[in-house]
Amino acid sequence: MTTTARDLGQRFHAALITGDWPAIRSILHDDATWTLPGDNAISGTVRGGDAVIERAQKIASYGVSFELLHVLVSRENMALSLHNTAQRPDAVLDEYLTTVCRLREGRIADIETYLSDVPGMNAFFV
Q1: Long-range contacts, 88-92 (Cβ 8 Å, 24+)
Q2: SnoaL-like domain location, by residue (predicted)?
Q3: Which pTM does this prediction carry?
Q4: Per-domain residue ranges of the chain
Protein backbone atom coordinates (compact mmCIF):
# COMPACT_ATOMS: atom_id res chain seq x y z
CA MET A 1 0.00 0.00 0.00
CA THR A 2 2.87 2.42 0.70
CA THR A 3 3.92 2.78 -2.95
CA THR A 4 0.31 3.24 -4.05
CA ALA A 5 -0.36 5.84 -1.34
CA ARG A 6 2.80 7.80 -2.19
CA ASP A 7 1.96 7.72 -5.90
CA LEU A 8 -1.58 8.88 -5.17
CA GLY A 9 -0.23 11.82 -3.13
CA GLN A 10 2.17 12.83 -5.89
CA ARG A 11 -0.56 12.56 -8.51
CA PHE A 12 -2.94 14.66 -6.38
CA HIS A 13 -0.33 17.41 -5.93
CA ALA A 14 0.75 17.40 -9.60
CA ALA A 15 -2.86 17.74 -10.73
CA LEU A 16 -3.51 20.49 -8.18
CA ILE A 17 -0.62 22.67 -9.33
CA THR A 18 -1.50 22.24 -13.01
CA GLY A 19 -5.25 22.63 -12.55
CA ASP A 20 -5.92 19.17 -13.97
CA TRP A 21 -9.33 18.81 -12.33
CA PRO A 22 -10.32 15.64 -14.25
CA ALA A 23 -7.14 13.94 -12.95
CA ILE A 24 -8.03 14.83 -9.36
CA ARG A 25 -11.62 13.73 -9.89
CA SER A 26 -10.39 10.35 -11.16
CA ILE A 27 -8.65 9.61 -7.85
CA LEU A 28 -11.62 10.59 -5.66
CA HIS A 29 -14.52 8.43 -4.58
CA ASP A 30 -17.93 9.81 -5.55
CA ASP A 31 -18.73 10.26 -1.84
CA ALA A 32 -15.39 11.90 -0.92
CA THR A 33 -15.39 14.65 1.71
CA TRP A 34 -12.97 17.52 2.45
CA THR A 35 -12.89 19.35 5.77
CA LEU A 36 -11.03 22.63 6.35
CA PRO A 37 -10.88 24.61 9.61
CA GLY A 38 -11.68 28.27 10.04
CA ASP A 39 -14.51 30.62 9.21
CA ASN A 40 -14.03 31.81 5.64
CA ALA A 41 -15.00 31.18 2.01
CA ILE A 42 -13.36 27.72 1.90
CA SER A 43 -13.99 26.45 5.45
CA GLY A 44 -16.20 23.60 6.52
CA THR A 45 -16.91 20.21 5.04
CA VAL A 46 -17.90 19.54 1.44
CA ARG A 47 -19.33 16.21 0.35
CA GLY A 48 -18.99 14.51 -3.01
CA GLY A 49 -16.17 14.28 -5.52
CA ASP A 50 -17.52 17.19 -7.58
CA ALA A 51 -17.74 19.39 -4.45
CA VAL A 52 -14.12 18.55 -3.61
CA ILE A 53 -13.10 19.67 -7.10
CA GLU A 54 -15.10 22.89 -6.76
CA ARG A 55 -13.28 23.64 -3.50
CA ALA A 56 -9.86 22.97 -5.07
CA GLN A 57 -10.77 25.26 -7.97
CA LYS A 58 -11.87 28.00 -5.56
CA ILE A 59 -8.63 27.79 -3.59
CA ALA A 60 -6.58 27.87 -6.80
CA SER A 61 -8.57 30.89 -8.03
CA TYR A 62 -6.95 32.92 -5.24
CA GLY A 63 -3.54 32.41 -6.89
CA VAL A 64 -2.22 30.03 -4.25
CA SER A 65 1.17 28.41 -4.80
CA PHE A 66 1.16 24.83 -3.45
CA GLU A 67 4.75 23.87 -2.54
CA LEU A 68 4.99 20.17 -1.75
CA LEU A 69 7.33 19.52 1.16
CA HIS A 70 6.63 15.83 1.74
CA VAL A 71 4.27 13.01 0.91
CA LEU A 72 3.78 11.12 4.16
CA VAL A 73 2.35 7.63 4.23
CA SER A 74 0.87 5.38 6.87
CA ARG A 75 -0.10 1.78 6.56
CA GLU A 76 -3.36 2.67 4.80
CA ASN A 77 -3.45 6.43 4.16
CA MET A 78 -1.32 9.37 3.06
CA ALA A 79 -0.81 13.03 3.80
CA LEU A 80 0.64 15.97 1.91
CA SER A 81 2.85 18.39 3.82
CA LEU A 82 2.58 21.73 2.01
CA HIS A 83 3.70 25.34 2.22
CA ASN A 84 0.99 27.47 0.64
CA THR A 85 1.61 31.09 -0.29
CA ALA A 86 -0.30 33.80 -2.12
CA GLN A 87 -0.57 37.56 -2.12
CA ARG A 88 -3.25 40.14 -2.79
CA PRO A 89 -2.91 43.91 -2.36
CA ASP A 90 -4.66 43.69 1.02
CA ALA A 91 -3.60 40.25 2.33
CA VAL A 92 -0.79 37.72 2.35
CA LEU A 93 -1.13 33.96 2.77
CA ASP A 94 1.90 32.12 4.17
CA GLU A 95 0.91 28.90 5.87
CA TYR A 96 2.13 25.38 6.45
CA LEU A 97 -0.42 22.64 6.33
CA THR A 98 -0.95 18.94 6.25
CA THR A 99 -3.71 17.49 4.16
CA VAL A 100 -4.53 14.01 5.42
CA CYS A 101 -6.17 11.71 2.88
CA ARG A 102 -7.96 8.58 4.01
CA LEU A 103 -7.90 6.04 1.24
CA ARG A 104 -10.36 3.36 0.28
CA GLU A 105 -9.69 0.85 -2.49
CA GLY A 106 -6.80 2.92 -3.90
CA ARG A 107 -8.69 6.22 -4.13
CA ILE A 108 -9.24 9.18 -1.82
CA ALA A 109 -12.33 8.84 0.36
CA ASP A 110 -11.84 11.65 2.91
CA ILE A 111 -9.59 14.69 3.14
CA GLU A 112 -8.92 16.69 6.29
CA THR A 113 -6.62 19.70 6.28
CA TYR A 114 -4.65 20.91 9.33
CA LEU A 115 -3.29 24.49 9.23
CA SER A 116 -0.53 26.42 10.96
CA ASP A 117 -2.34 29.78 10.72
CA VAL A 118 -6.15 29.63 10.80
CA PRO A 119 -6.54 33.39 11.46
CA GLY A 120 -4.32 34.11 8.45
CA MET A 121 -6.40 31.77 6.32
CA ASN A 122 -9.59 33.49 7.51
CA ALA A 123 -8.18 36.88 6.53
CA PHE A 124 -7.06 35.73 3.09
CA PHE A 125 -10.02 33.65 1.89
CA VAL A 126 -12.78 36.26 2.13
Answers
A1: 88/62, 88/63, 88/124, 91/123, 91/124, 91/126, 92/120, 92/124
A2: 10-110
A3: 0.93
A4: 2-124
